[in-house]
Amino acid sequence: MPKSNDKQEIVSKLQTMELVTQHLVQPGYLNYHGNLFGGAMLSWLDEGVAMYAMGRIQYTNIVTASMKDVKFKSPGKLGDIIQIYAQIERIGKASVDVKAIAVSNNPQNRKISEIIDCLITYVCLDENGKPFSYFKTKNWESISKKDFAPIPID
Ligand SMILES: CC(C)(COP(=O)(O)OP(=O)(O)OC[C@H]1O[C@@H](n2cnc3c(N)ncnc32)[C@H](O)[C@@H]1OP(=O)(O)O)[C@@H](O)C(=O)NCCC(=O)NCCS
User: Fold this and answer.
1) What pLDDT score was predicted for residue 140?
2) Is there a contact between 101 and 84 (Cβ–Cβ < 8 Å)?
3) Closest Cα to atom 36, ligand 1: which residue?
4) Ligand 1 geometric centre to CA of 147 (Å)
5) Mutate which of 95, 118, 123, 134 to test ligand 1's pocket (most atoms within 8 Å of Cβ)?
6) Which pTM was predicted?
7) Which of 67, 106, 114, 125 holds its CA 20 to 30 A away from the CA of 79?
8) CB of 66 closer than 6 A to ligand 1?
9) CATH number for domain 7-132, candidates 3.40.30.10, 3.40.50.1100, 2.40.50.140, 3.10.129.10
10) 94 Cβ neighbours under 8 A, 6+ residues apart
11) How confident is the model over 46-96, as pLDDT tens digits?
């Protein structure tokens, strides 16, 4: 496992991934000891990566089924920019696994630290809220070649 603050290794891990969202750590997100509250971090991660997945697969009725390997490797601090990167790892029948990495990037000293490196599984649902084998209806190759795009505004 790379050290959470080895810049070269972090940059190389992010090379094939897409920046999907970023957040500024402001005072309201800190816990009592001055570290970024883990619940805020997880919320930003899940929301940003879900939006990325929706854009990539062009389907919005998804739920988070699991977040594997969530370990907080380093703390976010006041003034850090939390950058969240993602990449589709695997497509199943109804599920899609997305690799997600969150890093803290300090704009003043340019220090980068890895916060979380995990795998999030989203499951497509039908109109009754049941798992729906969406990927059987689509050609995954044609989805995977699309660049990340937000859900379009009609
Ligand atoms: C996730 C959920 C839809 C799975 O329902 P289910 O009936 O157990 O699903 P199934 O056994 O039919 O499996 C459907 C697919 O989901 C995947 N899946 C189900 N549970 C999973 C889990 N915990 N982790 C990863 N994948 C999971 C299966 O592998 C399967 O994938 P595939 O179709 O690509 O092969 C259901 O448990 C649920 O609605 N959970 C609540 C989700 C939610 O509210 N999330 C927000 C956070 S609280």
Assistant:
1) 76
2) yes
3) 65
4) 26
5) 123
6) 0.93
7) 67
8) yes
9) 3.10.129.10
10) 123, 124, 131, 132, 133, 134, 135
11) 999 999 999 999 899 999 999 999 999 999 999 999 999 999 999 999 999
